[in-house]
Amino acid sequence: MAGAQFFFFLVLSLPYIVHSASPYPAPSQTLNVRTTHHNHPHRPPPSAFSTSDKFEGSSDLVHLRYHMGPVLSSPINVYLIWYGKWAPTHQSLIRDFLLSISSAPSTASPSVAEWWATVTLYTDQTGANISRSVLLAGEFSDASYSSGRSLTRLSIQHVIAAATRRGHLPIDHRNGAYLVLTSPDVTVQDFCRAVCGFHYFTFPSVAGYTLPYAWVGNSGKQCPEVCAYPFAVPTYMGGAGPRPLAPPNGDVGVDGMISVIGHELAELASNPLVNAWYAGEDPTAPTEIADLCEGLYGSGGGGGYIGQVMSDGVGRKYNLNGMKGRRFLVQWIWSPVLKACAGPNAID
């Protein structure tokens, strides 16, 4: 049955932004960036996001603004790069989540597609909404670790460039969104310490084109208590702290990844070139539509509580239904209509 779960608030990813006077750094320039990405369970929720009588996370202090850049308003073609060694069962689970974004209306409510409907409320300067159509347009398995087992932020762009230049994936600079997922044995710059995922765009000097992309790592072995929270909890919390939730699909690392993937795709769609929808005056450290709802998964959430979520017959927690009977636990998104965090499993 549904019940409020008590957990410390997480700060998940802001996208990393290159602070440069020019649109792109020189080819030899390294990515020296400011980052406050996914997940810091040590950090409490901002006091501005106190719950209102109806909507979790609502606040008069949030000034989310549109900065005149594009959103992904055409059908979104997701190109998936499996970097490293992946179990087919894990691939199937993530694939089903992505396919559920545009699933048929017959999917049980609350659904992943209904969750994405909040994202589609955002528009560009022409009034075009973010697309409801999110297609899994291509996949490539980079099981040979083409850029090694330890990646930097910049080398992730080289992973994308290699996949497109060798013909494994097309260069889709109109509708494409590239998603790089690293296996549990791959280390990534700042992974676990400061980030669990981020989004940005490729530099033409690296990939030949400006291509929106996101990266998310599998934290199952490296730092589940950081990046797969609330399915794992930090040891410092001890017996007096919150107990971990049972993941909806029985895999702490992959179930944790799915919420991060949802977070990053929502922000990639609404701020693909980092000049569209975000709060704050500093474009090098924007607060985006998923950042505003960190740690909120259901009604009653806020102040360290994830909110009311559902439970299956064996106690696994979820808040969204997907295709093939899949269930997922994915954080809420800031609604530009409600001026608050929203999700289809809301009960108020």
TrEMBL record:
Residues 29-54 are annotated as: Disordered. Its main location: secreted. Belongs to the EXORDIUM family. One of its GO terms (cellular component) is apoplast. It is found in: Secreted, Extracellular space, Apoplast. PANTHER family: PROTEIN EXORDIUM-LIKE 5 (PTHR31279). Residues 1-20 form the signal peptide. Keywords: Apoplast, Secreted, Signal. This is Protein EXORDIUM-like protein 5. InterPro entries: EXORDIUM-like. Pfam families: Phi_1.
